[in-house]
Design brief:
The chain is built from 3 helices and 3 strands, in the order E-E-E-H-H-H. By secondary structure, the chain is of the alpha+beta class. It has one domain. Helix 1 (about 40-55) packs across helix 3 (about 70-80).
C-alpha cells in the first residue's frame, strides 16, 4: 500500500470535495502526511481494506447507494471515529 501526496489532483472537479481518496492499494492525499489528520488516514485505510476484501462490490456500491448513505462510507467513518457511535 502506498500513500501519495497529490495536491494538484484535488484541484480537479471530481476530487475537490475530498481531502483523501483510496484507490485499491493507493491512498491519495491533498496535504502532506504530517499535516493530515489521523482520522482521515484511518478512513482511507479502511477503504483500502474494503477494496481488498470486496474488490468489485465496494467501488460499485457508489453507483447504486451513492456517497452519503453508502455502507462502506459508514464503516470507514465509524473506524475513523474509533468505533464510537
Amino acid at each position: 500500500m502506498r500513500v501519495v501526496v497529490a495536491p494538484s489532483l484535488f484541484r480537479l472537479p471530481w476530487f475537490r470535495r475530498f481531502d483523501g481518496y483510496a484507490a485499491w492499494n493507493l491512498i491519495l492525499l491533498r496535504r502532506p502526511l504530517a499535516e493530515t489528520d489521523d482520522d482521515l488516514l484511518v478512513h482511507e485505510l479502511c477503504h483500502v481494506w474494503q477494496m481488498q476484501h470486496r474488490p468489485l462490490a465496494m467501488p460499485l456500491s457508489y453507483l447504486h447507494q451513492g456517497y452519503a448513505r453508502n455502507r462502506y462510507e459508514d464503516e470507514a467513518r465509524l473506524a475513523a471515529d474509533g468505533g464510537q457511535t
